[in-house]
Specification:
- With 236 residues, the protein is of the alpha+beta class.
- The protein folds into two domains: 73 residues, Hotdog Thioesterase (Thiol Ester Dehydrase, Chain A, Roll); 144 residues, Roll (Thiol Ester Dehydrase, Chain A), CATH 3.10.129.
- Helix content is 15%, strand content 32%.
- The protein is built from three helices and eleven strands, in the order βαββββαββαββββ.
- An eleven-stranded antiparallel sheet has the order 1-3-4-5-2-8-11-10-9-7-6.
- The longest helix is centred in the last third of the chain and has 15 residues.
- The chain is globular.
């Protein structure tokens, strides 16, 4: 086995489901250590509040382990192409957030990104944009998400890119249970804390239990700051 590069811990405040880490946030912790475009695959729920071993494999590759259990794998990618729909304005995003379908209870109601039941959530409440097959929400990252340079840490950008894809895959009908299993993301420009931006997401493909969606963080001027492709899978 390769040597342990470091030990990291996902604090309980950064949960997605009540008892495990938010998938985007957890993946972003690994991506931050590789830099550039990264693909993260989640292999098991991310434990909260306990040390996890981050193991370096070949260059540009990491594994996250809970003892002998493989939690996640991360690999560097070349820049990837993803067709981003035309931008959603802040006003359109604010109107769309009124259509947010997130529940007040259930497994994701206390998610730190999109949970209605948490006053301290990011309030990334992505609802369908009128007349378009995508969802959007305004997002103003809090100051504590950033370093001294004011740029939001990658793990929080990854988290904001994650949750809206679920609602993009459920524009109509019942909100079926599904979980993030893979996220590819590229952070193109810094996302500045305490500045208004837009997070939008759109469906790409539905294949049985698999749902593929895209997401982007846009500046208030409509510039793409970050983008992601997310694979969700419904449990059997």
């Amino acid at each position: 086995m390769s040597p342990v590069a470091e030990t990291i811990e996902v604090a309980s405040r950064f949960n997605g489901p009540r008892d495990s880490g938010n998938g985007g946030y957890s993946g972003g912790l690994l991506a931050a250590r590789l830099g550039g475009p990264v693909e993260v695959s989640l292999r098991s729920p991310v434990p909260l509040d306990r040390p996890l071993d981050l193991v370096g494999e070949e260059e540009g590759s990491l594994r996250l382990l809970d003892g002998e259990t493989l939690v996640a794998e991360a690999h560097s990618l070349p820049p990837f192409d993803l067709a981003v729909p035309s931008p959603v304005s802040l006003d359109e995003a604010r109107a769309a957030a009124a259509n947010y379908r997130g529940r007040d209870d259930g497994p994701f109601s206390h998610c730190f990104v999109c949970g209605r039941a948490r006053e301290d959530s990011f309030h990334v409440f992505a609802g369908q944009v009128e007349g378009r097959d995508l969802v959007a929400t305004p997002w103003t990252p809090p100051a504590w998400t950033a370093g001294d340079d004011g740029a939001v840490a990658p793990e929080f950008v990854w988290a904001a890119l994650d949750c809206p894809t679920y609602f993009a895959c459920h524009l109509e009908g019942e909100l079926s249970l599904s979980f993030l299993v893979r996220q590819r993301a590229e952070l193109r420009e810094p996302v500045q804390a305490e500045e208004d931006c837009v997070v939008m997401a759109w469906p790409i493909e539905l294949d049985g239990r698999k749902r593929l969606a895209g997401a982007a963080v846009l500046s208030a001027r409509g510039e793409t700051l970050a983008l992601a492709e997310v694979l969700l899978v419904e449990p059997r």
